[in-house]
Amino acid sequence: MLENVQNLQNQIESTTLATKEDADKFKLTHLSKKGSIQELFKAFREVPPAEKKAFGAALNALKQLAEQRYTEASQSFESESVLGENGDLTRSGNPHDLGSIHPINAIKDEILDIFKRIGFNVSTGPEVEDDWHNFTALNFPEEHPARDMQDTFFVQRNPDWALRTHTSSVQVRAMENVAPPIRTISPGRVFRNEAISSRSHCVFHQIEGLYIDKDVSFADLKQVLMYFAQEFFGKAKIRMRPSYFPFTEPSAEVDVYWGLENEIDHKITKGTGWLEVMGCGMVDPNVLKANGIDPDIYTGYAFGMGIERIAMNRYQIPDIRLFTENDKRFLSQFKTGL
Ligand code: DAH
Fold first, then answer.
1. Residue burial 128-152, b: 16+ Cβ < 10 Å; e: rest
2. Nearest-CA residue for atom 5 of ligand 1
3. What is the CA radius of gyration of the chain?
4. Residue 328 to residue 33: CA distance in whole angstroms
5. What is the pTM of this model?
């Protein structure tokens, strides 16, 4: 019997393990459940008692030997495959692409920071809104054209709900949640049922500002907008053109004086030297009343701007659709924000 162990040991020692296939075959022949070593273990019963001890010890040693040969061989194949045939430890690894900050987020963060520095807190509201928050509490008359199906995506199951058409709805939520003084800035996505083109999209982003306190005046509004124009655009001059929004009275469009020094200035400002950046105004007393704030005690101002337009201007992006296409060739150009 011991002879059998000796024969097998010779065989195991002399087998060449040069390739992975050799090693696999070796494992199957000697180390598997039906392999040669197990066969000998099965024969253990038939070994005469006097020889059992020696046989057992020899067989265990043989098993260890076989396992060691197999492990060594397969480890050498593994390290070979990691290094390649001519293993080169100095070769650089596979590159990982680094992400970049989306230009919309970069602009949004920059604008929020500017207002946070002068005491505005950041607030957000839901993207699905009811008629009250999106329209009624903002003094939209019942028959106002902005409520028209053409502009607004209504929720089919409940037409009182709609995707918010502007972040002004967050003003209402702010007034509901806290008593004045209120000084808040609200970024968010808004939705309009408009044809998609290079300048217009049905999903875009706005930032809304709201300030309510005692004795807030139009001069305060103008001052804060001049601060913003200086910080964001590096421009000192603004103008305010009379306009109309249901929730502000008086209302204005704000233009920043850009200049007309070169061809790009002409392009950006369409030859006027002025860049339109946002809408604003003094919060209409009806809006204050609708939200439980006494307009005889408090006044306020509000403003709202579209982020895409500002980003398109800042980075000279010709088509608004580029923001949502997720094309890495476009997005990777904004790595500097990291
Ligand atoms: N909600 C307006 C829009 O979507 C933008 C706006 C204008 C917001 C004037 C304001 C404001 O807060 O005072 O076009």
1. ebbbebbbebbbbeeeeebbeeeeb
2. 304
3. 38
4. 53
5. 0.73
**From CA 336, how far away is CA 175, in angstroms rounded?**
38
**Ordered per-residue pLDDT tens for the chain, 338 residues:** 788 889 999 999 999 998 888 999 999 999 999 999 999 888 888 888 888 888 889 999 999 999 999 999 888 877 665 566 666 778 788 888 778 899 999 999 999 999 999 999 999 999 999 999 999 999 998 888 767 766 899 999 998 999 999 999 999 999 999 999 999 999 999 999 989 988 889 999 999 999 999 999 999 999 999 999 999 999 999 999 999 999 999 999 999 999 999 888 898 888 999 999 999 999 999 999 999 999 999 999 999 999 999 999 999 999 999 999 999 999 989 876 44
Domain ranges of the chain: 2-83, 103-334
Q: How far is CA 227 from CA 180, 212, 219, 233, 248, in A?
A: 23, 18, 12, 10, 21
Please name the helix (run of DSSP H) or strand (run of DSSP E) that holds residue 191, with its range, or none. strand 182-191
Closest CA to 114 of 288, 285, 14, 233: 233
Nearest protein Cα to ligand 1, atom 2: 304
| Best CA proximity match to 240, nearest among 290, 284, 279 | 279
Quick one: which atom of ligand 1 is closest to the CA of 165? 4
What is the residue with the minimal CA distance to atom 6 of ligand 1? 304
Q: Is the CB of 248 under 6 A from ligand 1?
A: yes
DSSP 3-state of 70: helix
Q: Is the CB of 140 under 6 A from ligand 1?
A: no
What's the topology of domain 103-334?
BirA Bifunctional Protein; domain 2 (3.30.930)
Å from CA of 300 to ligand 1 middle? 14
**For ligand 1, atom 3, which residue shows the shortest CA distance?**
166
